[in-house]
Design a protein that fits this description.
This protein is of the alpha+beta class and 244 residues long. It has 2 domains: 105 residues, no CATH class; 122 residues, Cytidine Deaminase, domain 2 (3-Layer(aba) Sandwich). The protein contains 10 helices and 5 strands; from the N terminus they run ααααααααββαβαββ. It has a 5-stranded mixed beta sheet with strand order 2-1-3-4-5, sandwiched between helices. The longest helix has 23 residues. It is elongated.
Length: 244
């Protein structure tokens, strides 16, 4: 019997009946976390399977729904995960989504542990992406900079539906004046994954830049972020594209 056949036969057994070295928890303890597949890590979170399917089977089914993409899985809400799979109760769904959210926040924590100076659009992307890149709805954020391009404040300006959100210029620049910003950056997400700016995005960017010029507050950049068709977080920069 070849290795794949042995593994398929093993999968048909409940995890407690597996050999110790094949159980995900035991394998992690013995060989380390890097030795486990994504489905095995999710199986540890699930703890148990359902009738006719082990925790590994259930974990693999969950991954199949998002074509193996953990990023897409992280975008699901608890209720969506429950509805999509029989045997995924509220507790299991919360555990999986919570673990993925911790991973997302870890990226933000690493960035926030440093002094946030924006040298370019990539710096802005790494600053804002953990907050909005995988959201199922649009959000618009403003980031405020001092004369050394250090971030002094950031805030959500508005949240909307799947394709748009309202933006109040007064909110953007009231905070800019309050925090004595000499420049601002703005960013919003496209849940669809299409990162190209719409005509509305272009008009809004010009309005923000024009209002800033009156107040002598420069618009550093406007980013559109999202999950690109290849499944990776990515961005469109108005500054890099010569649209500012």
């Amino acid at each position: 019997m070849d290795e794949h056949a042995e593994f398929n036969e093993l999968k048909s057994l409940p995890i407690p009946q597996w050999a110790e070295e094949d159980k995900p928890r035991e394998r992690m303890a013995t060989y380390g976390k890097k030795s486990l597949t994504n489905s095995e890590l999710i199986a540890i979170l699930l703890r148990t399977g359902v009738r006719g399917a082990s925790a590994i089977d259930l974990a693999q089914s969950i991954l199949n729904r998002t074509n193996g993409s953990l990023t897409d899985l992280a975008r699901l809400e608890v209720s969506e995960l429950q509805k999509a799979f029989k045997g995924i109760g509220k507790a299991k769904a919360i555990t999986v989504i919570a673990a993925l959210e911790l991973g997302n926040r870890m990226l933000s924590e690493k960035r926030e542990a440093k002094d946030d100076y924006l040298r370019n659009s990539a710096d802005l992307f790494h600053l804002i992406a953990p907050s909005i890149v995988d959201l199922p709805h649009e959000e618009f954020w403003a980031i405020y900079l001092n004369n050394h391009n250090k971030v002094t404040w950031k805030q959500r300006i508005g949240a909307g539906g799947l394709t748009n959100t309202s933006v109040d210029l007064r909110l953007i620049y009231a905070a800019a004046l309050e925090h004595r910003a000499v420049a601002i950056a703005v960013a919003h997400n496209h849940p669809s994954g299409n990162l190209q700016p719409s005509s509305t995005d272009k008009v809004l960017t010009k309005r923000i830049a024009d209002a800033g010029n009156i107040l002598s507050i420069k618009l550093f950049d406007h980013l559109i972020v999202g999950i690109s068709p290849n499944g990776k977080p990515d961005y469109f920069s108005f500054a890099e594209s010569g649209l500012l």
